[in-house]
């Protein structure tokens, strides 16, 4: 069967290949075919990511055996080698787990029909106006026999999926507001009701795609060539159009220049790394010595939580969502931003009372067997992934830094670890980094190349991708925790 | 040891009394622990830390240890333990990583004694040494275990698990220096308290975190562990390698496990999520809990036996903010409610069935013939007086043997293989199928096909002679009158879902049981069937349900048997109305053949078939004249299909459905069709008729069915060199980097169908090999083997 599908997907495959070829000779002439009268699409982007120079990214063909297997698996499962895969392959260990999970969620046995899964993916990605993921899944949705009418908006989908819209909205922007009433509303809706297993599947899909949207924006993934915005039929003569122009308009030519300007301060950023390492060392040493009082610890968490609300980039300009995407959501106004302006209070969620390892896992695995295991592995790999390097330094224990990032994200969602001193976050994460984290996690559609470039300037791109992996997994876990806690409360 | 025994003697004097009771706490509990005097219990949680006195009728709050105005994380307890030697000494593990000891003997309100802030992460568990007064052990999320001497300000030694978080630590009760620790990655480690450098032993106990462990109070080597994988395992550590001696599968991840005092094989468990009950298991009976306490409304977080030598009092704390004392005698015992039954097929189709004696007894009491024919063998297990188990009941075993030759389904297989379902004009299909049915001696089915042809094809094409012939043949070798033999000769249909068959199942199994001569069977069958209308069943459809023995002893179904007998009768009058129309005669004939229904004897029956054959011809002529549109009959045809399906012959129903296609499909609702299709496909697959089943799937118009052959189409292959599964691609092995299957003819990799000789195991592309073997009989690889292609 795999053989047969391979044949089916020859079309996409050829596109993917041509895309790769096209990347290398972007701007080069490919006009010789024109005499045949065929319009040949030309890639617009410069490689898989807009933020990472193409030469930094692994070229297909030069990968090692492990990566090659991964690519082959990915190709076999999806019938394409998408840009997300090409960027994630910086961390093959994680990529493997990621692909396995995604494959299981979308294609293997599960309570939801295939077209529902893709549609939920579209719904989730659309919350963040992530046209990349939406386009990808619109294709898949149609491929598995979904009704094209549904794509005209959520109101055209079955009532059952419409009911999920509210959960999607809350989950994406204010997961702490999920109550068991939300769950009850979905499970007890007469003929449109969800079963518990279906709901867990849907929740996992929603959280997966919310965080994947974060990754897409966080790493500036370029559109696929066969999707809107990924190609042009314009002759290559107009040289400047190489830089792809997608929906968000976040990146533009001037940002490229900003970047080059930013590179001037190389020496500054060098000290940045040194300072960070110094701080980590200090924290390691003095931890035993000074012990903050309980109230101090509690207030540190509160401060961090409150501050995280205000950490926002200054350029808060209104983003006009792309037309094709906007149809999927009812009110664009409902976002994370709203509440930060009004300074809404986020209740504290104690991780010691409801954690993924003990509670979340058990619930998911009970209702949607095997997925708990897969997600658990993915969290684990993401959290523990390290190469013991920091920028140009080797043999560094980065666990402290990784924990700070992870806990900072959970802190933004009001999730508190009793055994963590939130003062560390302030020491280790500087403001530009916090801005980036905050934007990627909460309003990914606003990430700009400038943000990406301005944090951790001396660090490698692979390390920045690593940070993104931490961000998306922490975000996914946070959303899952809230959703699963509500389900647990409903069940008891 | 000496101290231990003193404790025992000191307590054996007083007898514990109490009742099942509970009290409301102010906040969810995380853990509980009992004082050694068995009269007090401490409850700890995120915002609760209290001591309750256990009195005869109720819990009385004795002391609140949460003092001070400021909430402190040091008081947010993940675990609590009461020293088993010293009534005044308690220890708690805080979620922020602090280990606190409490001295109840302090005169001030604040009983906090010492504070150890050495762990960096949440401390999951604390444990006092069972006999040493000052030794405390803690296990934390940071992967370290620390041993504290309470006379000193800091830890004596630190043990590194070299892995992630420690979930539980427990001192061995018997070995002074040994303690066990369990880890989030599924490992269990055994340590010697004197050797902090490395563990004595390590093994993987569970898949996923091991949440808890408990040493057996009497048996030196036994350690029970409970994990997220929903298992409780009992390990024998006395041997060189830790050996799993028992395994209990629960329904949710196991949060706590505690051996029951004085009962060697009992342990109590509670779960982390979803399931709120406390169970007591006999590890030798791992499927049904021995006792179950259902008081809690939210997950139980802490359990403790009230006294180390009293097996009847269990205390539990829960997230629902209650503290409970459970009395064993008040526990619900699932064993009592369960109806243990076992069913197994033998190699030659024999069926053994065991059930609780009481169930069988009631059944046989109601049906007098059942008792003596089933050769029941009764097993009685001698009750062990030491066992508190009352649930062990005696059971009856029935064995149903199958007569040689009966139960053959060859007609089904033949029919399935030879029927033509598509690809030819309707008339031809019907003729072909009728012929197939007739050759297999299924005349009724053959008639049906013929009649379908008459109904749906233009009548002029049917030569009268042909019809005549078929009918004549049908009536002459029609259904035999010796119905008792018939009963056995006729093959039963597997998996028929009609409930009607249940009654037949009863009688059939009775008949089959007897291994006496055929005549005896005849007699008995006649007696047997006299009163019931079973014969109508098997004469109308020559298929019987075999799976229905399953229901045999089900009391509920047994009661509802009466009304169900009515169903075939309902069906029968319906057919009566059709008597005037073409399908009629065969039913007339049926009726005549069945002496019990008609109430007449064989002489009457012998006359009727002749009539019917004439009547058919005349009617078909009438049909030709009136030229009724086929639609006129569709209701009847649908009835006919339903009738076949109800008789258990889904094969006929589905075949007709496919052959007639659009003509009848709209008259039968989607779900019924789907149901028929799935039943038939299931049957076909049991007989390994993959090709036929696939054809049926393909020809089906129901969406749910036609997508069947698109699901789970993955084929897993192993590499022929290294025998490992080839995960990524089917033709190149990742490990040995070799192409697995080369074509012996063209020497290219075979990526699709690979055919090989079973003699020399050379092979290649199907096309190539076929071509090659047309010209040569030798193996294309040149090995000299004479390959055969069939």
From TrEMBL, chain A:
<protein>
    <submittedName>
        <fullName>Sestrin-1 isoform X2</fullName>
    </submittedName>
</protein>
<keyword id="KW-0560">Oxidoreductase</keyword>
<keyword id="KW-0963">Cytoplasm</keyword>
<dbReference type="GO" id="GO:0016239">
    <property type="term" value="P:positive regulation of macroautophagy"/>
</dbReference>
<dbReference type="GO" id="GO:1904262">
    <property type="term" value="P:negative regulation of TORC1 signaling"/>
</dbReference>
<dbReference type="GO" id="GO:0005737">
    <property type="term" value="C:cytoplasm"/>
</dbReference>
<dbReference type="GO" id="GO:0071233">
    <property type="term" value="P:cellular response to L-leucine"/>
</dbReference>
<dbReference type="Pfam" id="PF04636">
    <property type="entry name" value="PA26"/>
</dbReference>
<dbReference type="GO" id="GO:1990253">
    <property type="term" value="P:cellular response to leucine starvation"/>
</dbReference>
<dbReference type="GO" id="GO:0070728">
    <property type="term" value="F:L-leucine binding"/>
</dbReference>
<dbReference type="InterPro" id="IPR006730">
    <property type="entry name" value="Sestrin"/>
</dbReference>
<dbReference type="InterPro" id="IPR029032">
    <property type="entry name" value="AhpD-like"/>
</dbReference>
<dbReference type="GO" id="GO:1901031">
    <property type="term" value="P:regulation of response to reactive oxygen species"/>
</dbReference>
<dbReference type="GO" id="GO:0016684">
    <property type="term" value="F:oxidoreductase activity, acting on peroxide as acceptor"/>
</dbReference>
<dbReference type="GO" id="GO:0005634">
    <property type="term" value="C:nucleus"/>
</dbReference>
<comment type="similarity">
    <text>Belongs to the sestrin family.</text>
</comment>
TrEMBL record, chain B:
<dbReference type="GO" id="GO:0034198">
    <property type="term" value="P:cellular response to amino acid starvation"/>
</dbReference>
<comment type="similarity">
    <text>Belongs to the WD repeat WDR24 family.</text>
</comment>
<dbReference type="GO" id="GO:0005765">
    <property type="term" value="C:lysosomal membrane"/>
</dbReference>
<keyword id="KW-0472">Membrane</keyword>
<feature type="repeat" description="WD">
    <location>
        <begin position="203"/>
        <end position="245"/>
    </location>
</feature>
<keyword id="KW-0072">Autophagy</keyword>
<comment type="function">
    <text>Catalytic component of the GATOR2 complex, a multiprotein complex that acts as an activator of the amino acid-sensing branch of the mTORC1 signaling pathway. The GATOR2 complex indirectly activates mTORC1 through the inhibition of the GATOR1 subcomplex. GATOR2 probably acts as an E3 ubiquitin-protein ligase toward GATOR1. In the presence of abundant amino acids, the GATOR2 complex mediates ubiquitination of the NPRL2 core component of the GATOR1 complex, leading to GATOR1 inactivation. In the absence of amino acids, GATOR2 is inhibited, activating the GATOR1 complex.</text>
</comment>
<dbReference type="GO" id="GO:0006914">
    <property type="term" value="P:autophagy"/>
</dbReference>
<keyword id="KW-0862">Zinc</keyword>
<dbReference type="Pfam" id="PF00400">
    <property type="entry name" value="WD40"/>
</dbReference>
<dbReference type="InterPro" id="IPR036322">
    <property type="entry name" value="WD40_repeat_dom_sf"/>
</dbReference>
<dbReference type="InterPro" id="IPR001680">
    <property type="entry name" value="WD40_rpt"/>
</dbReference>
<dbReference type="InterPro" id="IPR019775">
    <property type="entry name" value="WD40_repeat_CS"/>
</dbReference>
<dbReference type="GO" id="GO:1904263">
    <property type="term" value="P:positive regulation of TORC1 signaling"/>
</dbReference>
<dbReference type="GO" id="GO:0061630">
    <property type="term" value="F:ubiquitin protein ligase activity"/>
</dbReference>
<keyword id="KW-0808">Transferase</keyword>
<dbReference type="GO" id="GO:0005829">
    <property type="term" value="C:cytosol"/>
</dbReference>
<dbReference type="GO" id="GO:0008270">
    <property type="term" value="F:zinc ion binding"/>
</dbReference>
<keyword id="KW-0853">WD repeat</keyword>
<dbReference type="GO" id="GO:0016239">
    <property type="term" value="P:positive regulation of macroautophagy"/>
</dbReference>
<dbReference type="InterPro" id="IPR037590">
    <property type="entry name" value="WDR24"/>
</dbReference>
<feature type="repeat" description="WD">
    <location>
        <begin position="116"/>
        <end position="158"/>
    </location>
</feature>
